[in-house]
User: Fold this.
Amino acid sequence: MDKCKPFLEYYLYLFIPSISCAYLTLYVLYVDMPIPKPTSIESRQDFLKRCMGDDTMTSEYTDSDQRLAVCTNEYDSYKEDSIENEEKEEIRKDVFDNPAEASARAKQIGCVGIHSHDEDGNKVFMPCKTHEEYTELTGRELSGYKPKKPKKKEEEDLIDNLAELKDILEVKSELKAYEDEDEENKEYGEFEGYGSVFGNKDLGNDVIEKGAFAKSIRRRKAKGVKLLYQHKSDMPIGVFDEIKEDEHGLVVKGRLALKTQAGAEAYELLKMGALDGLSIGFRVNPKEVSYDKRGGKRIIKEVDLMEVSLVTFPMNPQATVRSVKGEQYSIREWENGLRDAFNLSRSEAKVAAKAVTKCFDQREVDESAELVDAIKELTLTLKT
Assistant:
C-alpha cells in the first residue's frame, strides 16, 4: 500500500483540479447565461416574441410562464434604465462649466439668473436663481443633488417651527387648564329649581306676581343672593350661578360647596330626594303690596330678594328643586327602570321614558303638580 501512495497522490493532484474547473465552468455558464437584451428601436411585443423564441431561453426555461416572466422583467428593467439615462442626459444639457452659458440657457427656459453647486469637487452652473425654480420650470431633478438652503431660509424655517411648537404648547396648556377647571367644577353639587312660583298662594297666604324679583335681580345679581341651609344666616352652603324669572317663577341655579360639612350633607340629601324644597328670604316694599281680604291673601308685586334656602318644608309647596347634577338618567336607564317598576312592555317603556326625559328637559314646568309629583315618584322608584 505504501508503494502505491505516490501514484495515488499524483493522480489526485491531476484529477481534482480538473473536477473543480468543470464545476466552475458550469457555474459561470449558469450565472452568466446570456439573456436577450432589448434594442432602442424594439417594441415590447417584438422583444417578447424574440426572447420567448430564443434557443438559450427555451432550453433554460422550459416552462413558458417562467420564461415570459423573465423576458418581461428584462424589458421593463431596460426601459426604466433607458428613461433614467435619458433624463440624466437631458439634465446634463443644463449643467455648464461657464456661467454665461447657464445664463443664456436660463432665458431659453423662461427664468432669470443662475445658481451653482459642487460636482466632484468642481463648481458647475445651472439656469435660474435657485434649483427649486429650475425644477419647477423643467420638471426635472438632478439625481443626487440636494441644494443647500440659504441661511436666511433656514432661519425662517426655524422661526416657523418654533412658532408652531409654541402654538401647540399653548393649545395643550389651555386644554390642561380647561380639564383642570372642569375637574374642579365636578367637586360642586349643581342643582336647579324654582325658589318661588308666580300666582300661587303659599302656606303664609302670600301670592307673588310675575316681575316681583326683576328689580332686585338687576341690582344684586346672582352672586349677591345668598344660598343658605334652612334659612340659617350662619350656614351658607354654596353660591348661585344664575337667578332669573321665567313665565312660571323664580329660576335658581346653584352650586353646593361639597368641601363643607353642611354643603356635602345637603348634596347627599338632594340626591336621595329627602331634601327638595326651596324657600326665599326677602323684604317687602309696602307700596308694592295689596291685600285681598275676600281671598285671604297678600299680593306682592315687588320684593328685595335676600337669600334662597334649601329647606325640608318650603312655604310654597311648588317651590322645589327640579334637577340635581349627578342624578340624571339616560333614556335607556329610564326604559329599564320603568319596565321593571311598572311591568311595562319594551315599547311602552320607550314611550314612557321619552315622555319623562322630555319633562325633565323642559325649562318651563307645567302648572300641573300631579305631573311633577308623578315624575318625583318615578325618580324615587328608580333609585330604590
Observations:
- The CA atoms of residues 282 and 305 lie 5 Å apart.
- The radius of gyration is 47 Å.
